[in-house]
Amino acid sequence: MIDRYSRPEMRALWSDRNRYARWLKVEQLAVEAWETLGAIPRGVAERLSAARVDPDRVAFYEARYHHDVLAFLSAVGETVDPEDAKYLHFGLTSTDVVDTALSSLAVEALDRILQGIEAVAEAARRLALAHKWTPIMGRTHGMHAEPTSFGLKAALWWLELRRDRDRVARARENLAVIKISGAVGNYANVPPAVEEYVAKRLGLRPAPLSTQVLQRDRHAEVIAALAILGGTLEKIATEIRHLQRTEVGEVEEPFAAGQRGSSAMPHKRNPVKCEQIVGLSRLLRGYVVPALEDIALWHERDISHSSVERVILPDATMLADYMLAQMARILEGLVVRPQRMAANIEATGGLVFSQRVLLKLVEAGMTREAAYDVVQRHAMAAAQDPTRTFRQRLESDPEVQARLVPRELAELFSVQPYMQYVDEIYRRIGIEAPSAEVGRSGEGEGA
């Protein structure tokens, strides 16, 4: 991933230098395991702890061998006594090292991503609590529907982010395994005890069964979970972009001091960070198909997945990490304009209260069809000619007058009924409870 869309910590995690260092760690731990089993002389593991790996030397040897692990072993071997170096990679095959290190690195990356999800979810939770009672126009098909609470929008984001967290955590758990089981996975030249030792020291688990490789459904699950997370971030960003449009103006992503929105138009304040997240989510989703296609390998392994994973696993985790950091900043600094929200609710002259009028007329004795015709006729007329509002037209209609007194009709044009169950919804999802009291999926017991 290019530097523009990645953060330094995640770039360092996936760097060649760190990857080779993790390979070396696996090799050293395997030597320790062999030594504890009495299979190699004592003291070798301690001396090999001083081994180092230079990425430039690996590149030098790889240009000759066209095999990265052999190149790595030659580069490491230069830094220790040859008599000790011969115990590196003892009984192992390349993928014992590569897949084990990959799991270790990916788990570390996913731990960072889980922290990022928590940060965004907390920002959404604070928005939900701050704007629990802030009315906003609910929209369906992009059109005014009925009023709702802006807090409910943010609470919905919070819930979805918690599901994202659970998905990523499950994927992490399924990838938190290693394999040091030899060329076809049957431990012919390395006993399970070596694998168990290395796994414990890395804080991972031995895979119950492997071939020469870990099975790639594990890696595909990680990419899929990250892609779904990207979809959630895109959803939030798209909502903010729509609400920031000039004619809506209800929220605005942070605009920093000194920031400029356009090279030509000084007045512009564009939702560029949200647009960036939308664009990057498309890229993130694009990694899913290659990950799925990596699952089917020939027999006990082939190498068709390797080139793919060198790109998609680092890129997907770096992108997700970057997008989460951006979204946290957006939500933490989001400008919310309740007055504009209220004005937009009133913009149609009361048309958004049509369902309440319909139901009241039905309660007063009209058939649903007749009531619908009356309400729709006046609604359409008011939309075409707003010089007389929807409410004014209803007040002068004889059929309405016959069933509703002016006070009853006036009560229907209020936002309050649309907010009456907000408290109950908040209690049901547990958003106001301490985090320890909320279920892992973020949904309370009443859900």
Brief overview:
The chain is mostly helical. It has three domains: 90 residues, Fumarase/aspartase (N-terminal domain) (Fumarase C, Chain B, domain 1); 250 residues, Fumarase/aspartase (Central domain) (Fumarase C, Chain A, domain 2); 62 residues, Orthogonal Bundle (Ribonucleotide Reductase Protein R1, domain 1), CATH 1.10.40.30.
Description:
It is a single chain. With 447 residues, the protein is mainly alpha-helical. The protein folds into three domains: 1-90, Fumarase C, Chain B, domain 1 (Orthogonal Bundle), CATH 1.10.275; 93-342, Up-down Bundle (Fumarase C, Chain A, domain 2); 351-412, Fumarase/aspartase (C-terminal domain) (Ribonucleotide Reductase Protein R1, domain 1, Orthogonal Bundle). It is built from 20 helices and six strands. The chain has helices at residues 8-13, 16-36, 44-48, 55-65, 68-77, 82-85, 94-130, 150-175, 192-202, 217-244, 272-285, 288-293, 304-332, 338-346, 354-363, 368-384, 390-395, 398-401, 406-411, 422-429; strands spanning 135-140, 143-149, 177-178, 205-206, 251-252, 335-336. Strands 1-2 form a two-stranded antiparallel ribbon. A two-stranded parallel ribbon has the order 3-4. A two-stranded antiparallel ribbon has the order 5-6. Strand 3 (177-178), helix 9 (192-202) and strand 4 (205-206) form a beta-alpha-beta unit. The longest helix has 37 residues, at 94-130. The two termini are 40 Å apart. The model is unreliable at 436-447 (pLDDT under 50).
